[in-house]
Amino acid sequence: MMKKPIESMAALSEQLGRPARFMEVCGTHTMAAFRTGLRSLLPEGVSLISGPGCPVCVTTTSYIDKAVAIAGTAGTSVYTFGDMLKVPGTESSLEQARAGGSDVNIVYSPIDALDAAKAHPDIRTVFLGVGFETTTPTVGWTIRKAKEDGVGNYSVLCAHKTIPEAMTVLLESGDVAIDGFMCPGHVSVITGSQIYEPISRDQGVPCVVAGFEIGDMASAIEMLLKQIVQNRSAVEIQYTRSVTRTGNAAAQELCNALFDKSDAQWRGIGTIPGSGLKLKDEFAEHDAGRIFADLELPEPVAPKGCMCGDVLRGTSRPTDCPLFREECSPSNPVGPCMVSSEGTCAAYFKYGETLEGSLSR
Amino acid sequence: MCLAIPGKIVELDDEDAVIEIQGIRRQGNVSLIDDPQVGNYVLLHAGFAIHKWSEADVREYNEVMDGIADARKQDDEEAH
Question: Which ipTM value was assigned to this complex?
Answer without folding.
Answer: 0.91
